[in-house]
Amino acid sequence: MPKGPSPTFDIAKEPGDQMGNYIDGSVWYYAPNKVAPIVFAALFFISGVIHIIQTWHYKSWKTTFLMPLASLLMMAGFVAREVGAYDIQDVGLLIISTVMLLSGPPVFAGANYFLLGRILYYIPYLSPIHPGRVVTTFVGFDLIIETLIGTGASRMVNSNLSANDRNVGADLVKSALILQAVSFAFFVSIAVAFHLRAQKAGVMNKKLRAVLTTLYVSSALIFVRCIYRIVEFFEGYTGTLYSHESYFWVFEASLMLLVSVLFNFWHPGRFLPRSNKIYLSKDGITELRGPGWADRRHWLVSVFDPFDFHGIFTGRDKRQDFWNQDPAQYEGRAVGVRPDCTASGVRPVYWRILDPLHLYGCDGLYARLFRKLWKGRATDATSPQSVPASPSTSDAGEGVSEKHDHTRVVEDVV
């Protein structure tokens, strides 16, 4: 075959090119190692099972459920790679292995997003943004990244497609990896900003320091892996990183295994409370149970304005500073709560599925319209024009007006 210029992912290379790693007919470019995939598949399986046991033991499903999923994705990728090592011409196995192994690290990153969100719920008064928006924003980015990677990788490694089609797939993967690196750098900057605030406030205890250290180390490992993949795909199919399998085992397999094992040894469930309503008081020692810091906006609004810039500019978030209030007031927030609501204002999952537009319920559209109409009628009934001018009636009217004002405040809080 000629050695002339070829597209990025063209396999037009003679045996002996790139230090002799190319194997004629191999969709992997080289002959994959037949031992290492078994070892890593077994290690990821063990780590994933331990994650499941730990998550069940600490009852931390809401925070760490992605950790066993990421380990099992990596395991599946190595199983496909092991099978493909015995059939180096099967492009289907290459596609499965590539997609699984490219999908696992973003899921590990997603576990970090949930972890930082729980940390910010634990010390809400130092959070740079609403804790819930860490998850919704960065997991949203991850879904976009996973879609681009899945689409691009399946096209990129499919040797049955034309060179142009494969290069389009490579460009999609490059874009996804760059987006992942930028998103992850922004995520780490939020964690660092919180860390500096916690140190300055004097609430950085041993548990919090252990969780943040684990978060930083795992984030660094994921980021290094991401840079490796970016360089690999920009070099192309015949580049040094792709054509030499040893780089894959060091910068992909080993780094991701370290991330998984790291969370096995320092599982977040050991250090953080199960409920996001439990927060650390400003003395840095006492843990209190609050009403929770809920984002009660409509879900469509939270999608288009995940950081709630409107709330930041209008000061709406500041009115949720329950950590500066008397804990005895928390009980009043649960008054009037109906089956489709919780004390924090967050609807259960089944109500979100049955009523995605939030039309019904104690804070639904119909309820808000009814309250507004009822308040208007009550205000008209107690206005000076409709009440006889007498001292006793006037006092009663003021009492009624004050009662309705109090109801409005309670409803706004609940």
The main β sheet shows up as: 2 strands, antiparallel
Order of neighbouring strands in the sheet with most strands = 1-2
Show unreliable segments: 1-20, 331-344, 384-414
CATH fold description of the largest domain? Rhopdopsin 7-helix transmembrane proteins
Radius of gyration: 28 Å
Q: According to CATH, what is the class of the largest domain?
A: Mainly Alpha
- The structural domain count equals 2
Portion of residues in helices?
Answer: 55-70%
Number of helices: 16
Q: Structural class of the helices, strands and pairings?
A: mainly alpha
Subcellular location: Membrane
Pfam families: RTA1
Main location: membrane
Protein name: RTA1 domain protein
Q: What do these coordinates show?
A:
It is a multi-pass membrane protein. Residues 380-395 have a biased composition (Polar residues). The chain crosses the membrane at residues 35-53, 65-81, 93-115, 135-157, 177-196, 208-231, 246-266. The structure is a single chain. The chain is mainly alpha-helical. The protein folds into 2 domains: 17-278, Rhopdopsin 7-helix transmembrane proteins; 326-414, no CATH class. Helices cover 64% and strands 1% of the residues. Strands 1-2 form a two-stranded antiparallel ribbon. β1 and β2 form a beta hairpin. α4 (66-85) runs antiparallel to α10 (245-265) and α7 runs antiparallel to α8. The longest helix is centred in the middle third of the chain and has 39 residues, at 163-201. The radius of gyration is 28 Å and the shape is globular. 35% of the residues are buried.
Task: Spell out the key features of this protein.
two-stranded antiparallel sheet, 16 helices, globular, 414 residues, disordered N terminus, Rhopdopsin 7-helix transmembrane proteins, disordered C terminus, transmembrane, 2 domains, mainly alpha
